[in-house]
Amino acid sequence: MLPTNKKIAVLHPYVNKKWWAVNMMIYLSDFLSNNNNDVTFYTFSYDNTIFPMKNRVISFNNSKLVSFFKIAYRIRDNDFIIIGNSPMHFVWVFSKILFGSKAKLIWWHHHYPWYYGWNTNVNILLKRFIEKIFLKHIDIVIANSKYLQESIKDIYKIDSKILYPVLDNKFLNYNSENKNKNDHPQPLLTKEGSRPKVIFTYGRWVFGKNIELIFNTYENLKNEIRELVLIIWWEWDELNKYKNKYKDDKNVVFLWIIDKDQIIKTLEKSTIVLFPSKIDSFWLVILESMSIWVPVLSYNIAWAKEIIKNWVNWYLLDSQKEFIDKTNEILNNSSLQNSLSIAAINTASVFSIDSFKNQLSEIFDTIKN
Predict the structure, then answer these.
(1) What percent of the chain has pLDDT over 70?
(2) Helices 334-348/320-331 angle, 10° precision
(3) Is 133 domain-assigned?
């Protein structure tokens, strides 16, 4: 059963960039607030122009160390403390150890802790050591996929519960609002009146997201496919070199700071979405694309297999050549595009608000027991 009339603190270190993990923490805080709980969001940095929140937000502008202990003190009298990313798990354990907090501690993992695979240095070794000690004070760990659940078991030697992300209503409701359309909508037209073939991709392009695969695919196909367009959204260091390289290519479009409605409009123009990342444990981009009837190609990474259905709703690929070949096949086959789109809609609908509510209720029941 979901908690009601409780005091709940939600912690995420940085609420100033459009990360999906931040979106889900905000969604969770709103969800719990709507269930008659007193929810406060704590962070080191907050940009309300990017993330306007109806819940109370407390952001500390001191040094990180000072902010660390201020938050630990402020959250001491909560019933539940939920965090999304490191180092906030240290904050709320300190609240328990130093300030006598009796709160139930919940850690919602959004990605694999890659620092367990890096070449070690003193700081990383110390973090690992402290982290494993602090885990003893955590009441429950939540994973956002079965893949991450297995990784947590392997790294920390503890069990966790799964709380899959939930699609925004704008995406969940898209199919019913467009049920009279017979095929994938593509309103974008060229000056000549024909429809271009549009590759779209969006995400937080950091190292390991494999963004070069997107541009390599475009390069290999642009001379074969007439009117091929590449649209890529989101700013990050990994994109800078490509912006310079393609500044004179009118068929490569870079977008920045677009809202959900603009994402949907861009997806409506798109023929295919490419997901090149090798490091994620779950990507809502894939489900968002599926909900707007757009076929998706993904790298063959572990969590992706959780929502694949016999290669009928998208494709898992193992090499650059497979990416290029399969992209080429789909772009040139409207019948295949439509069959993939229909299957994709059914997959996306599983990640609903009701499903999220049921999983979250089971998690809180586990804590009570």
Answers:
(1) 85
(2) 110
(3) yes
